[in-house]
Amino acid sequence: MTVLLVAVAVLVCSGLAALLASGSPRAATALGAGGAVVACVIGLIAAVPFLFGTPAESLRLAWNVPYGTFFVEVDALSAFFLLPIFGLSALAAVYGTEYLQAWRGRKSPGATWFFYNFLVASMVLVVLARNGVLFLVAWETMALTSYFLVTLDHEQDSVREAGWTYLVASHLGTAFLLAMFVLLGRSSGSLDFDRYSSANASALFLLALVGFGTKAGFMPLHVWLPEAHPAAPSHVSALMSGVMIKMGIYGLLRTLTFLGPPPAWWGWVLIGVGLTSGVLGVLFALAQHDLKRLLAYHSVENIGIIALGLGVGLVGVSNGSPVLAVLGFGGGLLHVLNHALFKGLLFLGAGSVLHGAGTREIDHLGGLAKRMPWTAATFLVGAVAISGLPPLNGFVSEFLIYLGAFNGVTQRAGVAVPLLAAIAGLALIGGLAAACFTKAFGVVFLGEPRSEHAARAHEAGAAMRWPMALLAVGCALIGFCAPFVVRSLASVLPLVSGLAPETVGEKLADAVAPLRFVIAGSVAFLVLVAGLAWARRRLLRGRTMAETVTWDCGYAQPSARMQYTASSFAQPLTTLFAPLLRTRCKLTAPEGYFPRAASLSTETPDAARVALYEPAFSGVGWVLARMRWLQQGRIQLYVLYIALTLLVLLVWKLG
Amino acid sequence: MRATSFIHPLLALVLSPLMLGVINRTKAWFAGRCGQPVLQAYYDLSKLLRKGAVYSRTTTWVFRAGPIVGLAAVLEATALVPLGGEPAPLAFTGDLILLAYVLGLMRFFTVAAALDTGSSFEGMGASREVTFSALAEPALLLGLAAVARLTGSLSLSGMYAAMSLETWRQAGPVLALVTAALMVVLLAENARLPVDDPNTHLELTMIHEVMVLDHSGPDLAFILYGAALKLWVLAALLVGLLLPVRTGNAWLDVGAALGGMFAVAVAVGVVESSMARLRLLRVPQLLVGAGALVALALILTLR
Lengths: 655, 303
Description:
The complex is a heterodimer of chains A (655) and B (303). Helices cover 72% and strands 4% of the residues of chain A.
């Protein structure tokens, strides 16, 4: 525990030091990033033992805030979420040292590192906090520091707009959390987590679902994600998408531990939320032209997969089926870690593309694999992993969720319908994700450059390449060490599912057995790939290997503009799902025998934003505008308002 | 793992190109032609393996890796599928999920290799491939879920070993619906009519053939062989449902299943001879229809 608090202290101090050293960019970067890396390494070393049987440790200090105590604790669930926080933050900090060079002379790196280190520290505190007030303070710090990081380029209108959306969404979510904590603490008169009672469990569950779901990005609470992720610097996007939105998942899981045995409908609700977020997330991702916006929608999709897993787990708990509970929660939790790895990797890759080619527009890129081989190779690993394909980590977590759902379908008739929906949804999400990432990888990195920018792109430097390479290795490692990783969940699952550790251990052993075969298959696959590659080389030795233009049915002058673009690649799917996507299309069709100009542009605005939030907010704005007559600017009137309010309250209290 | 488990993968490795020959012979018979030799696919393979290769200057290592990864993935899939009641070499709880995703891996790299050429033709094929497969995947997994629910097993080998004529008597309608859906998946996934026309190489209507336009030599041989194996794997799933012959003698059972495999090849030939290719806009409806069939089958199993 002490060591973890030391890590937090190092983060806070190095952040402050970086701010003070703003005058010298080099010193500020060294202090900020160096402090973050050191703190993360310390934190990782301190957190890992708690996953492997070290009993939970806590610390309670008095705090001069009403209902607040400085009560922190680290148990297996906290430790599990600390892993991606520390791991990804360290790598993103290393990446940031080079990535932020682009802002040199315009922005002081001191302030950026200050916010970055405070963001990491606040996330650590969120998972450690065991008091409502402390939790909310850490939660707010997390929201505000990330807001300042998102609006680094606040000179641009679009970035300010994105930051504003994020800030509003964040605070609306926090309002629900505030209500939840007040309800939780009302009966015991204390906001410490260990004294909460579970009266009104269903109302609390719904409040948590909305409050934490806003941070996690459940559809339709996700509106801030596709705005804020593209606006932020890429290493911050990686951190926000890889770890920060998972704080919502952590909060939901932690709340579930207070609420006692769940009724069946909670699981159904989570499966429904997961299906909506998963399918709509990947569909909106398909329709995007901006690489980082596409990745942001994929975060919504993956949060959906996590919610599906948790939903399957809840269905298992409420139906008294430990297999379902262990596989569902296990798959969901593992997907949290996996998504941190591959989404971190993909956002860093997108940053490297932006850094090297100067644009995020997928249709302006192309052929980058030749000029950016490292980025291309690591992005490919991330793309295969996020599509849930073997032998990488994405498959392992989806496999566990599938296995849970299949188990439920064969063993229990009562829960078969939601579980079948989960299977169908996962299969559809898997297919669409593969479509989306062949598009993203294929159009950005393969083929011919579609613009001057892409043709002159350059590879990132070592500080940006190594974090990506390490994350790619992480994706492969979890894929190949799946049994070990899954077994390390043994200490976390009893906390979230309420099952006895022995039952969890037994069921986990059942889950690990098939994973061994999966790995045997993966090893055989790698051997086959190596063997076939060798055979191909052997066969082609000494034979002619000609190089020529791409075969275009006899057309000898293919140009880069004739290539399939991201929009044309996704067109069959976006047309198929047009009623959901409502893509806006502007077409100037070619006319006459000698057409001069033709153009087509498509835009897919967020459906929830257009149909739900914009009308709601303009309605609120309209109502508030009507109340402007209250605001006179005269102090006397304001004093009168206060006096009247007090009088009304007094009468109400007396009466 | 039993020694007899390896019968099926060996048969698949040797006989899968023969399936293509049987399909082509059936089509020739319907058209009143002599047709190419039954062993034509073997001749093609041996010719391609002896050739050099031509590469587009646009391509990178991804293009060269595509056929290798694709073939390796479908070989792994072959090791997962049982035939004739014998368990597969790689049989475990949940292997049906791995099967679907290994085929997905094959597709991912075929599509990436197609996009690597920067050709609009190949891009078009790739785009159609991912569209149709995204719709076929739920039908495949839900179909297998229905069989899993009927047999109470979560492994392909266990599911198919538990199948018998008795299962057909008890749950005939469910199995018929699943079989029909799997047939649609087989036709779509293997780029056969009415989804894709394997004979046209230079029309704007095709899917699989156009994705591999730029491959040549041993690379094309790998792709051709991989396609034959994929047809074999999906046909084996179908035959296991349609012909659950259980005599107790492994050789007899496998022999009967083998007959079933070639019957499926003939059936594919008959479909190809008697149907026109669907308009591309209709293909999603066909695939969603297959999904609806398995959904119906599942409702029947839930009674």
